[in-house]
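Look at a sample.

——
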Amino acid sequence: MSDILNTAAHPAVFPWLGLVFGLVIGSFLNVVIHRLPKMMDRDWRHQCAELRGEAVPVEERFNLFVPRSRCPACGHRVSTAENIPLVSYAVLRGRCSACKSPIGLRYPVVELLGGVAGIWSAMRFGFSPAAFAAMVFLWCIVAASFIDFDTQLLPDAITLPLLWLGLLLNAVGVFTDLRSAVIGAAAGYLSLWSVYWLFKLATGKEGMGFGDFKLLAAIGAWCGWQVLPLTILLSSFIGAAVGIALMVFARHGRGVPIPFGPYLGAAGVVALFWGPQLTRQYLNQFM
């Protein structure tokens, strides 16, 4: 067993294991992105029925594992051979094997992002708890970002466990000290919460959702309060740039909401991997 671990931990081997494992997780992330919003919707409908005193409708069992994945066009069950990350998409030429309906490009993109998250974390941190933790952080950011793109929702099922996991990891100082993590979680939530209420009092409109507060709190719990200014500044810059590009090139109306979670997530990834260095470089300009 020790020989196997030594081989897996070798700098020339571990990144490739991270890539393969990440591709497999990326395939599962596609399931999460597709099914979690539907599970949330079903749960809300059941709760509303209970509050109205109505009978909860009996529906097919539906979660992240049941039923098996199917083609949305013809209902063909996806076999194991058709579910190999990236390879199956290439072999099938992006089409269902049964009805030849096109398979969205998002599926291989998410798988590839999962693989990149695995190999990059392994290269950055080596065979260590930080590497495995960083993989989990990146995978959660990918899932939350795509769900937010689709639904303008950041599920508590992702953001809250991510927040608590960050605090637990930093209780033993994986990325920062516990004091910085706790302050980061509180400051991350309260900063966007304050912006939300100031904007609402000034305009009478909601500028962002509560999921954004929780996601920034999770980033603060993982990275510490020191990188929060960088995260907010970077996410705002990316969000503004994308928003302007959408209005100019895609004729995206000003009244159409733009999800902020993906930009927070991207800034959080930068903060996790390069936050301390970027913050020091910025502060050194004023010293």
Summary: DSSP finds ten helices and no strands in the chain. The chain has a mean pLDDT of 89. The radius of gyration is 21 Å.
